[in-house]
Specification:
The chain is α/β, with parallel strands linked by helices. It is about 35% helix and about 25% strand. The longest helix is centred in the C-terminal third of the chain and has 31 residues, at about 300-330. The radius of gyration is 21 Å and the shape is globular. This is Oxidoreductase.
């Protein structure tokens, strides 16, 4: 069984550490705050150590990284060079060249490199993606994802980098390719230079399109993925408290035989999905990849695809915000 060291016991890192502990694989906690690391280790039945000590510990098989995003590349590369398998929270890195270097290093060393795109391990999304791949929707026409809530506001990154990696990962998975074109618009309302709401449009080589809307100043929580295909439509409502109602299938048809397309509506069908926790599934998958030498579902290649789309969206967003500022200056 894999032995895991976890780096970063913050807002999200503590959830990863807890899951690895409950799986019986957590060996060590690393955190910049030694007292926090020691307290967490005592709670979770692990030990606390410095990052350098973890790298040199032959007992450690893999390292889970949930440090601040700007530290992902440095921590992951050090771990790979030390011969450790690596799980790194999204984003894989902040720069495509750095992400490519991580992927190449892992590949050359025969090590696991896995990215924390959590929704890929959500059983409802897994079911939805399988339905798409089985042809139940026909050709995908349009897919969109909304991820909105009130907070958590950040100063170190905008809402695009904080929220959208999950949604980009899902859209790329459904369409089976990276987008051929990406555009973005946003709004800065509270912290100078930090976008609080962003909309990203993507067009894919097969002719399908989609958009993502992310916002942390929304009056209520909404996590909704909508898939529109030639043969059927579906809604994955992750903010729906009733598990059995999270995935609804609509077998609507559009009659195009006349001069004007006419919809033929049907009642939604609830799609049964066995319940399990996405984060637990993700942590189990990382351990299985180490123990059984499996290829991660969200490997370096998948992480690179998401990062390339993110960077294109960030460039488009900057242009949009600069244009907005120019218009304000003129007025």
């Amino acid at each position: 069984m894999a032995s895991i060291a976890h780096v970063g016991y913050g807002y999200w890192g503590r959830n990863l550490a807890r899951n690895f502990s409950e799986l019986g694989v957590l060996d060590t906690i690393v955190d910049p705050d030694p007292d926090a690391a020691a307290a967490a280790a005592a709670t979770l039945g692990a030990k606390a150590a410095a990052f350098e000590d973890v790298l040199s510990d032959p007992h450690i098989d893999g390292i889970s990284i949930a440090s601040p995003a700007e530290m992902h590349f440095g921590h992951a590369m050090a771990a790979l060079k030390a011969g450790k398998h690596v799980y790194v929270e999204k984003p894989l890195a902040l720069d495509v060249a750095e992400a490519e270097s991580l992927h190449e290093t892992a590949l050359r060393s025969g090590l696991t490199l896995m990215v924390g795109h959590l929704l890929q391990y959500h059983p409802v999304y897994v079911k939805l993606r399988a339905m798409v791949e089985d042809g139940e929707f026909g050709r995908l026409l349009y897919v969109y994802s909304n991820r909105m809530s009130l907070g958590k506001f950040r100063r170190e990154e905008n809402v695009l980098w904080s929220f959208a990696p999950h949604d980009i990962s899902m859209l790329l998975g459904l369409f089976g390719s990276e987008p051929s074109h990406v555009s973005a618009q946003g709004t800065v309302s509270h912290t100078p230079g930090i976008a609080d709401m962003v909309t990203v449009q993507m067009h894919f080589p097969g002719g399908g399109s989609g958009h993502i809307q992310v916002c942390w100043m929304h009056p209520f929580k909404e996590q909704r993925l909508v898939v529109i295909g030639e043969k059927a439509m579906a809604v994955f409502e992750d903010s729906e408290p009733d598990w059995n109602a999270k995935l609804k299938l609509y077998r609507h048809e559009i009659d195009t035989s006349g001069p004007v397309p006419m919809p033929q509506k049907t009642d939604p069908e609830l799609v049964a999905v066995p319940r399990s926790e996405p984060l637990r599934n993700e942590c189990m998958h990382f351990c299985a990849c180490i123990d059984q030498r499996q290829k991660p579902l969200t490997d370096g290649i998948e992480g690179l695809g998401v990062l390339r789309a993110l960077q294109k969206a960030e460039l488009a967003l900057r242009e949009n915000l600069e244009h907005q500022q120019e218009q304000k200056d003129v007025r």
